[in-house]
């Protein structure tokens, strides 16, 4: 009996070590399949990561205020913000269609109230009965989704059906869709196409 107990006490730690090794190897292999973003040049290892992540912020009345979707979200040790790849942000408005924002990369704070976007960043609103088409392009943008506010100090191009405006630096009130270009502002009118007979 004592021999069986002794053998069991020897086998249990070995089984535990084997299981731990398998789990560690599997999770490392799974993370090694992740395509790391360009900015992660040191190949840092995330302590938390999610695939196809969605973050929804709600207003005080419980209605969706914004939705943030990313192919992957990474959180690295000793960093406050998490990195998000191919972010797509939807800002829901009181009137008219939602505002859609896309970028190549982004960084988001822990509660999703501030997002910094980098790469080809686009704010787009499709035409509807309430609004005309508009599209804004910039290489960097900081958004506060719950405040319907965004800003950048980089170059900006705004295209509508009738005009193209460019400038450097911008403050944007997304719910009302008021965009204020701050410096080197230029605009040109796009002539309306004549109807074909």
Descriptors for this entry?
lipopolysaccharide transport protein A fold; 1 helix; 16% helix; 2 domains; 197 residues; alpha+beta
Question: What can you see in these coordinates?
Answer:
The protein has 197 residues and is an alpha+beta fold. The chain has two domains: 1-31; 48-189, Lipopolysaccharide (LPS) transport protein A like domain (lipopolysaccharide transport protein A fold). Helices cover 16% and strands 49% of the residues. It is built from one helix and eleven strands; from the N terminus they run αβββββββββββ. It has one helix at 2-32, and strands at 48-58, 64-75, 82-85, 88-91, 99-102, 105-108, 115-125, 134-144, 149-160, 163-173, 178-189. Strands 2-3-6-7-5-4 form a six-stranded antiparallel β-barrel. It is globular. Residues 20-41 have low confidence and may be disordered.
What is the strand content? over 45%
Residue ranges: pLDDT <50 for 5 or more in a row? Answer: 20-41
Could you estimate the helical fraction of the residues in percent? Answer: 10-25%
Average pLDDT rating: 77
Query: Which second-level CATH architecture of the largest domain applies?
Result: Sandwich
CATH third-tier fold name of the largest domain: lipopolysaccharide transport protein A fold
C-alpha termini separation: 101 Å
Physical arrangement of strands within the biggest beta sheet:
2-3-6-7-5-4
Describe this structure in a few short sentences.
The protein is α+β, with helices and mostly antiparallel strands and 197 residues long.
């Amino acid at each position: 009996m004592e021999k069986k107990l002794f053998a069991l006490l020897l086998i249990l730690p070995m089984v535990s070590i084997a299981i731990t090794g398998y789990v560690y190897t599997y999770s490392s292999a799974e993370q090694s399949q992740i395509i790391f973003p360009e900015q992660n040049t040191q190949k840092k290892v995330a302590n938390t990561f999610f695939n196809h992540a969605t973050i929804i912020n709600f207003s005080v009345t419980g209605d969706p205020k914004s939705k943030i979707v990313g192919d992957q979200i990474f959180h690295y040790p000793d960093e406050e913000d998490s990195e998000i790849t191919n972010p797509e942000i939807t800002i829901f408005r009181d009137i008219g269609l939602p505002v859609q924002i896309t970028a190549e990369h982004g960084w988001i704070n822990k509660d999703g109230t501030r997002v910094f976007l980098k790469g080809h960043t686009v704010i787009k609103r499709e035409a509807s009965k309430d609004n005309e088409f508009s599209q804004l392009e910039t290489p960097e943008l900081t958004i506060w989704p719950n405040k319907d506010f965004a800003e950048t100090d980089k170059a900006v191009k705004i295209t509508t059906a009738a005009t193209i405006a460019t400038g450097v630096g911008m403050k944007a009130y997304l719910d009302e869709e008021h965009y204020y270009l701050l410096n080197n502002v230029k605009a040109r009118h796009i002539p309306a196409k004549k109807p074909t007979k």
